Amino acid sequence: GDPLPCSAIQRIKTLINAERNMADKSDINKVVLAYSGGLDTSIIWKWLQEIYECEVVTFTADLGQGEELEPARAKAEMLGIKEIFIEDLREEFVRLCVSNVSRQCAL
Question: How far is Cα 36 from Cα 27, in angstroms, rounded to an integer?
């Protein structure tokens, strides 16, 4: 069966039919999608693929969410996504975001 619920697939088909002719797809060969594995990013993956007729690569940032990463990878694989990137950005996230918030709160 389809990896997405029927109602989501119907919404995708409606969007595709409404916007297919509006897309300027001449210069787009590949798109990188910030992918969580949730319904929204799975729907937009299909929309990008259909509207722009391009390859969609997924990127998932590991910010410490742990067990949520492998289900996201598994869903991307189930959808047939060929390039799946999951990067461990925990240190950068703490260094750039958490430490800045801590400094702001200290003021």
Answer: 26
Answer positive or negative: Cα dihedral of 3, 4, 6, 12.
negative
How far are the Cα atoms of 4, 25, 97 from residue 65, in angstroms, in the given order? 23, 35, 16
Q: Residue 34's beta-bridge partner residues?
A: 59
Write the pLDDT tens digit of every residue in 85-100.
999 988 888 887 776 6
Encoded tokens for 73: 């990878």
**CA pair distance 99, 93, nearest whole angstrom:** 9
The answer to whether 41 touches 35, Cβ cutoff 8 Å, is: yes
d(CA 80, CA 65): 24
Task: Summarize pLDDT for 2-31 with one digit per residue, the tens.
Answer: 565 667 777 777 766 666 656 566 677 888
How many residues are given for the chain?
A: 107
Place of tokens 């998932």: 60
Q: Report the predicted TM-score, pTM, of the whole model to 2 decimal places.
A: 0.66
